[in-house]
Amino acid sequence: MIHPSQWELIRYPPEGYEFVFSKTMWDKGIEKIMERPPVIHALYNCFLSKFIPVPIAKAYLQKYTKIPEADLIFSYNHLVFKKKPWIVNIEWLHMLTGANIKHLFQYRKVVEKAFSSNYCKGILTWNEVAKRSILMNLNCGRFQDKLEVVYPAVSKKGFVKKYNKEKVKLLFVGAGGPSDHMSFLHKGGLELIEAFILLDEIYNNLELVIRSPIFEHTKRRIRHYSNIRLIEQKIPWSMLEQEFKSADIFVHPTHYANSFSILDAMSYELPIITSDVYNNPEWVEDGVTGFIIKTSDKIPYYWKNLIPSGPTLMLRQFNDAIRKVDRRIVQELVKKISILVEDGGLRRRMGRAAKQEIEEGKFSIKQRNKKLKEIFDQAVI
Predict the structure, then answer these.
(1) Which residue has the higher pLDDT, 315 or 198?
(2) Torsion sign, CA atoms 283, 285, 288, 294
(3) What does the alpha-carbon distance between residue 48 and residue 91 come to, in Å, rounded to a whole number?
(4) Per-residue three-class SS string for 133-150
(5) DSSP 19-48
(6) Between residues 42 and 138, which one has the greater pLDDT?
(7) Measured between alpha carbons, how far apart are the two ends of the chain, in Å?
(8) Among candidates 226, 231, 268, which has minimal Cα distance to 249?
(9) Domain for residue 354, yes or no?
(10) Are residues 108 and 240 in the same domain?
(11) Which of 154, 172, 125 is nearest to 279 (CA)?
């Protein structure tokens, strides 16, 4: 299965390259499971991850699977054992061995051997934090020169931003599935609601749009606020795009990493308010493309050695911690949102700077493809 984050790369590859792919038996099997109710997905993940590292198993199975003829294999979050040149794009190190964090250390030698292979031509990450996690947790002496940070890219949107002078619309986007209630908590939704309730006492021109399923007790908390619009169901991209286009500020006080909705919001000329967790300070320049707020000291963001919240999501203490509102974060959100509500000129400058980063800066397809072409060219020599 192709992760949504990879479609921008497939649609806009570096000059002289194209991506070819076909579904393997593994992919077809996963698709069948994903068609089942969410509880089946959870049981599947818990059962398999308890006993075997699923990405490692997948890599071994694909070693004997026929794939389309290609000069270079580009892998996403799993190793390659075929005797062909390959490059891997890794979100976080632990994803090479799956959800059970113990497997990362049990199979560390397998990962190091694969990375040291002459067939491995590049190890790419989306941020410096993920790169450091590899350096800290593996013996990288034989492959350190293969490590590269290649920032993800988002395509230009080609629209002219229209600013609403009557209202200031805040947008929050969580996961799109009907059962993804925890995503609302993972991305700081509780703190945002409490901040908005305080802001609503100060300003009479605010609107908050929440694109995420939320828990019933949270619905009861906001039911009397006519200026909070809740979109719980999954909606077509064309509808979500209209929310981005009509928004003024994208608020994302997340406890999680690699939130691609941040880059989407930047492409729609929105200033970003987000937390300093993991890679966010690399993606949002504080005071230029938005504001960075300090994360909670009550939440166990890191499990060990820069291993991010992916494995932590399965730990009870993390999920328990994010169910409780951190009042310091609420107050910081109120402060930063107020600055942008009161200063329309600053909103526009930050939004335009964010859009510039997408169209010409480090998150542009042009910059990404320039770096990828250099890596690919070296790999196929």
Answers:
(1) 198
(2) positive
(3) 21
(4) HHHHHCCCCCCHHHEEEC
(5) ------HHHHHHHHHHTS-HHHHHHHHHHH
(6) 138
(7) 29
(8) 268
(9) yes
(10) no
(11) 125
Average pLDDT, the chain: 87
Q: What is the mean pLDDT of residues 257-285?
A: 92
CA distance 354 to 211: 21
Quote the crossing angle between the two packed helices 54-63 and 25-34, to the nearest 10°: 140
Q: Is the pTM for the entire model greater than 0.90?
A: no
Write out the H or E segment, with its range, that includes residue 209: strand 206-211
Whether residue 271 sits in one domain with residue 374: no
Token representation of residue 182? 């925890």
Strands 147-149 and 206-211: unpaired
Distance CA 272, CA 285 (A): 9
For the ranges 1-5, 106-110, 129-133, 335-339, the one whose mean pLDDT is highest: 335-339
Six-digit token string for 78: 């799993």
- C-alpha torsion sign, points 294, 302, 267, 147: positive
Query: 204 vs 212, 214, 225, 243, 332, CA distance in Å?
Result: 24, 25, 12, 20, 20
One-letter amino acid of 203: Y
How far is residue 318's CA from residue 299's CA, in Å, rounded to a whole number?
Answer: 6
CA angle at residue 318 from 313 to 324, to 5 degrees?
A: 130
- Domain membership flag for residue 162: no
Which residue range forms the structural domain that includes residue 27? 4-153+364-379
The CATH number linked to 235 is 3.40.50.2000
Dihedral in degrees, nearest 10, Cα atoms 104, 306, 47, 105: 20
Q: Over 80: is that where the pLDDT of 291 sits?
A: yes
- Determine the Cα–Cα distance for residues 162 and 248; give it in Å rounded to an integer: 10
Q: How far out from the chain centre does Cα 183 lie?
A: 12
